[in-house]
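Help wanted!
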Amino acid sequence: MTLRQRIGPAIPYALLVITVLPIVVGYFWLVLNSFSARTEGLLPVGGLALENWSFLRETPFGRGYPSIWRVTLNTFLVAISMTIAVVLVSSLAGYALSRLNFPGRKSFLSLTLILHAFPSVTLLIGIYFVLRTLKLYNTVLGVGLVMIGFELPFGIWLMKGFFDNVSWDMERAALIDGASRLRVWWEIIIPTIKPGIAALAIFAFISGWNAWLIPKTFTIGAGQQATLSVYLENFQGDTVAVQWGTVTAVGLFQLIPVAIFFLFTQDLLLSIYAGGAKGGA
Amino acid sequence: MKVQLENLTKRWGSVVGADHINLEIDDGEFVAFLGPSGCGKTTTLLMVAGIYKPTEGYIKFDDRVVNHLAPKDRNVGMVFQSYALYPHMTVLQNISYPLKLKKVPKEEMKERAQRVADMMGIGHLMDRKPAQLSGGQQQRVALGRALVKEPNLLMFDEPLSNLDARLRLSMRGEIKRLQMELGITSIYVTHDQVEAMTMADRIAVMKEGKLQAYSPPDELYDQPRTFFVAAFVGNPPMNFVDVEVVREDGDYHARREGFDLIVPSDQGEKAVGKGSVIMGIRPEDMTLADEGIAGEIYVVEPLGRDDLIDVRIGGASVYVLADPTLHLKIGDPVKLNFDAPKVQFFDPETEQSLLWTD
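Answered by r_m:
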């Protein structure tokens, strides 16, 4: 084997390793730092320690602030309600847009696309007034509703794409077999696009779990209604020195469910990006 | 069950899917809708099934108008080209789904599904998912699902197009046999004229949404009503030559440059004096002979049992079937003997037959 033959196949791997390396180093540092008293570069100084994780037992901000578990519950509530609402509404709306012919269908479609592309930052002040009027400012419910609203256009488009890939014949067959339209949707179409639904559910959950901008804007600081991202941000005050050890520990804590999700659902998430109903036939 | 279509029309805006279709299907009859893709045969079928709403006209089952009935209330069964099986259900669940929707008791449901599956020769596959079946098996499941509810009307939408040639041949026979045994009125949509000819009691030929002809296969073949039907039905297809029919000394002659054929007076008198008309003759209605109209071989296409030869006569070209043992070559001069009573004449303007009009 010549040198050239040996090096040839290694080149793509080398390139991949080089590109991925910074990310791996980042995660490595995150884990290391959370278990160290202090780090210099990538080396722990003063041995390993668990004190960074003390936030699990007592709130680091003192009395009156919620415990990490309360915040985790808030985050979970936002994420799970977002998952349920987005999946339910998207799969109904996506089906209607894919299959039914109704007045305004075209404009509705382009509107969802525009809304999807719309920078949500520009709407923040308007939404603030709406939440204020509805007495939903600084509530988990309010945050959840706004997040659902922002996620829906994407979800609807995604589900429409999955429905488009289901053959008309199958639906017709079920209608002729004697099913009603709703029953066809529930018993025939939904089961065949399960991968799509699962992918959207995971997607919605993760974006709810990780959300920062909207919880930050519509709740007050690290109060009883805070979510993890807002809580995390609270460590970076302007007046006190930042405790990076604790920040990394909380960050890692927040990362755990997401990481577990990714481990088990990589394939499904890939099918979103591939844009096809892989589980179709 | 008797099915009647009266002025059945489907339009989407300016696009016409089916255009004033009139036909009647007798109880227990097997009718094929034949035509090229986009001719409106599937559109018509889906209207009968209740999937599409007709723009105009009526669909009647046993003299009862069913336009307004939903598919589930029509008691029809349908088999699709794509099989359209439910991928997440087992064979048993697929076949029994129509019964489940009818709220048939569980035991009876299972029993009936098993009986139909046994009849289709797939009784041992009940626990499989569709993805674990071959194309032929999937088609049998689809057929079983259509049959299990004992429909009054069975519909097929190109059911054999996805199967390989050998399987298609055997399924063709099976479907035909099954239909006769069960006596269920059936509509079979296909673009394959061999399927239509071999299976159907009557064939409805469609083109651009219009019904071109509706008659038994042999009549369709021997007495084509329009130029389109003549050209579409038959393989290898009918030959067409522009001729002028004149009467001389009591005989009718179909003539063009280098071509003079005496035709029987029955046909001749209907085409005489009409100027240029289209003469049609099928490849099997001509033979190579010692005497006859002279031509030259342009191409020889071996088909196995026969050679298909393209003979040029003046500026015209006709395909003739010939014995392969003759070892004909390109450029050979030949003489053709026409079976004159078999010729057809068509009006080049209206494309209607000059012989078989009502």
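OP: Thanks! One thing I noticed: Residues 275-281 of chain A have pLDDT under 50 and may be disordered.
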